[in-house]
Amino acid sequence: MMKHFILLYLSVALVLSAAVSCKKDVKSGGTAGLTIVNAIPDCPRMLAHLSWGQPKRWAEVLFVDFDQYDPADHLSLPAGEQPLQFYRYPDTTVSDKPVHKMTIPLVAGDISTLFLMGTFAQPETMLVTKTPPYYSSKDSLVGLRLANLSPGTAPVRVKITGQGVNMESTSLTYKGITDYISVPATSKVADLLVEFYDQTSGTLLAAYKLDGVGSLITNNRWRYRNYTLALIKGPGAKHPGAAQFVTLINDY
């Protein structure tokens, strides 16, 4: 099965262990969680190789698609220095060079997101380490994290609105990201609308609607969970002709 986004998660026990730990050592045992997000519009499909050297077969790589997410991919990596190489599909021959290669320190108990942005010619990365907040069954909340991953975009203002909800985040510059914002997801809220505006001109750049946030159905996809909403450069397969749009990343 082709993997669109690589979501590397920890068990609850590891997360709790990290919460009470006073010291972090990238050489210690245990596992770490990592989400890799492809926000490079001219690399619609990238291949992630989790070691040095040239990949020799498909089983050695993971597919990371632009503006795509597959929640079925739940993996974990050993703590320590993790090499990563990214290739633009289908460039995987011996003569091909990776679009980008790097080493990231994975600390046992941490949950991180690696954002890939920029262009094929000038790729950029941003590693963010943050454990999503936990919401109990008594909390009618959804956690939303906002990011500006659109190169050349001036600072943006983001509005989150719904029935009885009016929240705002300002001065979100390129490669800027907020903490998780706890947003009401009660039955009174109904839907939520997240809008990204140019902070200076007030022009609406892109928006994303969270339908049924306040629904009372058992399998409400929003309540008690966490998501990242990122403004990225278009166009995309699902957003033809769009200069910019908002993509949704499941953080849980």
From TrEMBL:
Keywords recorded for this protein, A-Z: Signal
Span of the signal peptide: 1-18
Protein name: DUF4397 domain-containing protein
Protein source organism: Pedobacter caeni
